[in-house]
Amino acid sequence: MVSSLILAAVLSATSGPAATPELQAWLSEVRSRARLPGLAVVVITAAGEVSSVTLGTDAEGAEVGPRSVFAIGSLSKSFTALGVMILVERGKLSLDQPAAALLPELDPRISIRHLLHHTSGIPGAAGFWFDGGSLEGRVRALHGEPLLWAPGTAFQYSNANYDALGLIIERVTGKPYARFMRDEVLGPMGLDQVWVRAELAEVPRGYQDWFGVYQARRDSDDWTEANTPSGGMFATAEGMGAVLRLHLTEGRSLEPTVLSEAGFGTLHRAGTDEDSSYAMGWTVRQLDGQPMIVHSGQTGEFTSTMALFPRSGFAVAALANVNALASPATRLAVRDIVPGVAQLVLGKSPKTSTWFGYRNQPAMKWLFLGIGLVSLARFAWAWRRGQSRPRWHAAFDGALAVALLVGVPWLAHIPLVAMLRFNPDLAVLLMVGAVASVVRGGSTVLTKRATPAS
């Protein structure tokens, strides 16, 4: 049970960056250790008590505040899921109807529920789309995409599922996705601090990690109309606080509500597959023995996490203006922040990753790049001196090149083209390693062919 005194102390502020010295100091330490340029954290109770901490600056040099705009990436999925459930309660959709009834491009076995729970069988790699255009074109590209397995049998996270749901919303309502979200979701919820990509004249700049050096960049080319439902929304910490309170109270904090308590309960309930903890735009986990309903989001330049703690009656969101996919240090920090803040609220000591985990990630990238370049240079030196290598080395080098360019992206469920946008330094490491392997292997074969048999 949460101590009411602790909760009241931590959540005493009504607006702005006020918070307990302990919370402020801990967040400052995490931000410093992980080198987060800007950070906004909001904690809200079911009663509407708000505490926020904002630290650092945005990419334009202005101080981050409760109304600084962040891209929220895959947190957008919770809004798309909410829109779908609104249509379900209005009788416009059924969770178990075939999605192909509205999207003939999809396998007829896939239901709307499968898309919401990421159990459609659509590959994760199919979720990365950078060709711009419309939702129609984006979903059309899924036609003929081989499924990993029969729909409903296993979980595979894919942005494509939620982009397809966005097009379903358009076809059912006759409205563009952005207009539906404003008219039927964001507007009625009073969310004037949450936006669909199309509503912003210009998206904010964030930072991307390039071997430990942060570079300011705008991700307008990455997230367009074609992938807004899965990851193209923007919000402030203030806006996320309002969103979290609505979910925390299952709509009871809003009159009239946009969705019934049962509807919110469905959104927060994990799928029927015992191996999947994914609900609908949320993931169901545990923190110190109590349920935590959570989701994270990432774009090329921003990272975000939100979590509900329904048993204890509070919720937390953390927004950072640097990409965590390209920076393991950032990923560790943002992963630590939400549960760490929750543990402080619960009167416990927050657990954080090690100093090594934060500080040495950029150094490790430079080290691996250096190893690859030195290996290539040593081989070039040996080849010029006429030193030969066993033929099996060529086979090994070829296999290594395939593993780097195909295997690693496959294991990460991120195509190499997506890595170039989200993890540019990692993509460079993979390509340098693959090129070195191909050059070594190819020259070994050529050297052997040119060497007369003894």
Entry summary:
This protein has 16 helices and eleven strands.
What order do the helices and strands come in, and which of them pair?
Blueprint: H1 4-10, H2 21-34, E1 38-45, E2 50-56, E3 70-71, H3 76-89, H4 112-117, H5 135-140, H6 159-173, H7 177-186, E4 194-196, E5 205-210, E6 213-218, H8 228-231, E7 233-235, H9 237-248, H10 261-267, E8 283-287, E9 290-298, E10 303-309, E11 314-320, H11 328-345, H12 355-359, H13 361-384, H14 392-412, H15 416-422, H16 424-450
Antiparallel strand pairs: 1-2, 1-11, 3-7, 4-7, 5-6, 8-9, 9-10, 10-11
How would you characterize this protein structure?
By secondary structure, this protein is α+β, with helices and mostly antiparallel strands. The chain folds into two domains: 4-356, DD-peptidase/beta-lactamase superfamily (Beta-lactamase), CATH 3.40.710; 360-450. It has helices at 4-10, 21-34, 76-89, 112-117, 135-140, 159-173, 177-186, 228-231, 237-248, 261-267, 328-345, 355-359, 361-384, 392-412, 416-422, 424-450, and strands at residues 38-45, 50-56, 70-71, 194-196, 205-210, 213-218, 233-235, 283-287, 290-298, 303-309, 314-320. The strands form three sheets. A six-stranded antiparallel beta sheet has the order 2-1-11-10-9-8, with helices on both faces. Strands 3-7-4 form a three-stranded antiparallel beta sheet. A hairpin with a 4-residue loop joins strand 1 and strand 2 (50-56). Helix 15 (416-422) packs across helix 16. The longest helix is centred in the last third of the chain and has 27 residues, at 424-450.
CATH superfamily of the largest domain: DD-peptidase/beta-lactamase superfamily
Number of helices: 16
Strand order of the largest sheet: 2-1-11-10-9-8
Low-pLDDT ranges:
1-18, 355-360
Class based on secondary structure composition and strand pairing: alpha+beta
If classified by CATH, what would the architecture of the largest domain be? 3-Layer(aba) Sandwich
Strand fraction: 5-15%
Rg from alpha-carbon coordinates? 24 Å
State the end-to-end CA separation. Answer: 82 Å
